[in-house]
């Protein structure tokens, strides 16, 4: 029987709201497993055993443009930083979504400024931004979703080529200061793009690995894959439990999955957020004695 993997945001808002269904599931789950790379964990659920997971940016770029000869490509996610006394913080709502015209304008001007540097910016059909390098880099990066509302210092690129990305990220901040795109955003009451967060890098792909299942929700990596049932599923719900957006996503995906679990059509539900993943089986439904508590206490 297939499994389903649910990923959602564990960020605790100022006034968190309870989520009855999620809390019932967590109360009946096994002890959590630590999560290092949640995408790798979820990918194993829908990929053949011998498949290796591609880089986030490589998969997203392939979905936008097909095969492309890129020595190394990374996501360039628009972000809004908050400058504090001694630190820089990624704002609570600091991951910004661009319109296609904004993305194209930034890519065009970036390529004018950086010219023959061996680096270029490309706007995808989905308005994602990709930073493409003429040589492969040895570097480890962090998903900006894991940096939201945190000081960015400990999440900056690491590894042998980290100085290359760090310098470029600093130069981009200066380039964006008083940029025309930001002037237009200010006129519409939108937050300024103060940086591009470079992450998820890898060598360009000639093809995507085949999967045996489906992907739903919103994720730059998993949205690159077409559904190939039968098999398990990965559902990415970027919303905070209890929020208005969560209610819609819960009724669309989580509620039907719970029904399938009870009917025996699914063997397991994985509930993943932050650095923890809880697994629920049909047998776990008998753990009626477990106390239900606020969902955020499970991920503290």
Notes on the protein architecture:
The chain has 300 residues and is an alpha/beta fold. It has 2 domains: 3-52 and 210-298; 57-202, no CATH class. 30% of the residues lie in helices and 23% in strands. It contains 8 helices and 11 strands. It has helices spanning 20-27, 38-46, 56-65, 100-114, 162-176, 180-187, 244-263, 295-298, and strands spanning 3-8, 33-34, 72-83, 88-95, 119-123, 129-133, 195-202, 213-217, 232-237, 268-273, 276-280. A 6-stranded mixed sheet has the order 2-11-10-1-9-8, with helices on both faces. Strands 3, 4, 5, 6 and 7 form a 5-stranded antiparallel sheet that branches. The longest helix has 20 residues, at 244-263. It is globular and about 60 Å long. The model has no long low-confidence stretch (mean pLDDT 93).
